[in-house]
Write a structure and sequence with these properties.
Elements: H1 12-40, H2 56-63, H3 74-81, E1 85-89, E2 94-96, E3 104-110, E4 113-118, E5 124-130, E6 135-136, E7 150-153, E8 157-163, H4 164-173, H5 175-201, H6 204-219, E9 220-223, E10 226-229, H7 235-242, H8 246-258, E11 262-265, E12 268-271, H9 274-282
Antiparallel strand pairs: 1-8, 2-7, 3-6, 3-8, 4-5, 4-7, 9-10, 10-12, 11-12
Domain HTH crp-type: 202-275
InterPro entries: cNMP-bd_dom, cNMP-bd_dom_sf, Env_Response_Regulators, HTH_CRP, RmlC-like_jellyroll, WH-like_DNA-bd_sf, WH_DNA-bd_sf
GO molecular function, one term: kinase activity
Length: 284
Amino acid sequence: MLACSSPSGDGGIDNRFFAVVEYVRRQEVSDILYIMSDKRETPLSSPPLEGHHCTVDLRLEKLGLVPFFQQLAEEQLREVNKKFTASHYSKGETIYRQGDSSTMLRVVVAGNVKLVSHTLEGEGVLLDMLQPGDFFGNPTAGSQDVYNETAETQTPACILSIRLSDFREVMNRYSSVAMVVLDITTDRLNESRQRIQHLSTLPVTKRIAHILVTLAHKFGEEDRRGLLIQLPLSRKDLADMAGTSAETTSRVMSQFQEDDLITSGRQWVAIKDKPELLRISAES
């Protein structure tokens, strides 16, 4: 066995050597615990939502973000707000189910909502994730129409609802609202067609890259980890959006992480190299 000793024979080098080894060991353990904690503890900001958070001022602010209300003056927006009713939901509650009568238009004031469509085989396809200021439901639905998706809260949420009959009165009163609703309906139809094309023709790696870039554009916030997608996002959510299995999604995400394109933890993802993900999603 080799032994280290100081020239003076007092064992000083041995002591310093083992002290350094012990320090490094402790530092490595500390780093590992930090990384594990960072993976377990979500960095997403999701403050508890109480009734007083859905104030009139907040309602007006988020209604003002809805595309077809953006041209309204403040007093007009206040009149429109009176036609909406507020409802509070806990995390994981169903707002409406696919196949229910389409009678309401809704706006997210606080929290996050996801829209899921189910196939005849019972498989879910995640259509969209919504944030405050987003509307959902079909603003042009007729009396016999039904919802084509299920709406479920991802976090505690405050949702505004207006009956479609009342919304039609708003469109009759404000022509600018009706014009934008027509444009949005056309845009959504085109987006649906494009989504179907992506799901049926693109390789899964490109689909997931495209989804991550889209979510980062809509929900991304700069963070020490990268561009943090500010909403709960599980592997199953991504799989449902990409139209693939959770196992395949995990493999693709692991490769993205190994390539230093993303970093992720329990139900959160941060984008580290958005240009490269864009390149992957667009390459032929």
